[in-house]
Amino acid sequence: MDTSSTRNKLNGTRGTERLLWADGARSLACIMVVFVHAASPSLIAMRMSAGYAAIQALAVISMAGVPIFAMLTGSLILSRSASPDPVKYSILKPIKIAALIVIWNAVFALLQSSISSSTFTFWGSLRLAGLGAPNNPTLWYMYQLFGLYLILPVIYSFVRNSSALTVALFVALGVTAGFVPFVARVAFDAAIWSPAPLFVIALWPAYMMAGYLVTRHKEALAKYTLEIFGMVVLCAVLNFIGNMLTTSPSRFIHQYENVTTFAMSVGAFFLIAANADRLSRSKALQIAAREVSAAGLGIYLIHYPVLVTIRTFIDPVPTHNVIISTAICLTISFAITRALLLIPYFRKTVTL
Known about the structure:
Blueprint: H1 20-45, H2 52-62, H3 65-77, H4 86-116, H5 122-130, H6 140-150, H7 152-160, H8 164-188, H9 196-216, H10 218-221, H11 225-245, H12 259-274, H13 276-280, H14 283-294, H15 296-313, H16 322-340, H17 344-349
Helix pairs in contact: 1-2, 1-3, 1-12, 1-14, 1-15, 1-16, 2-11, 3-9, 3-12, 4-5, 4-6, 4-15, 6-9, 8-9, 9-12, 11-12, 15-16
């Protein structure tokens, strides 16, 4: 295990031990997120083409990317022996996240204006960010993260003072709270109520607590590895079938509240955590995972503007070739992030 004191970019710990599986999980999550965003418009365009099913299958699996980020945060923070500092986590970190939302939404709005020859105004960008409707749609998770950090001390207190069964019950209730509006939206093409507040107080805390439970009981769960793998495959297949049969391509697997997506993501997270020893056998994989992991948040913030730039200015990059687009976007986003991390202010801002 690497004993460097490299600062963890996602959870803010500066421990003497660095978890290899955490680096691997975050790196894999980065790749998944970039792939999903590279695939979304291409899937709608190539719906009747020969490669549609294969890309759709990979995209369905890659939907576990954002939940893995949330579960990793939960597993690392909620496992600490010391309670999170309320000032640090409920005030300072949300302020940082708000600053990131404002800055990167303005960057994306400026890019949009240069592409469409429209007029850019910072105040217009700020207004949209403040209303929760940013120009950059991928910033949605930053809003969830903002809410999670606000209530993190409460989540920590609940988890540390409750039995594993009680925490598991809350996880089940949290998924249900997100799943009911999802069913109503899909079955009746209507919303019973806006699920956004439920995501902050129920669904994403449920993901965080699930990550905590998985890592805490990893050894006990190990004897069910084959069954968990089967569950992941089954849930992925069900999501794949659902997306292949849908009559609305615009609904492209935005289903983090879907029970099958939740089960698939939790199972995938366990498989990554349980097989960390495989990563430790390769020094090259350790280095690669550590570097991508350290740039993880920066890649998340930068990759979508890079994708838009690739689709707009770099020709020819076939938009239907999702693999190539993902690889190019990931490489450019990583390089930009590593360069920006040399700037002290940026490094301090993106260090959560």
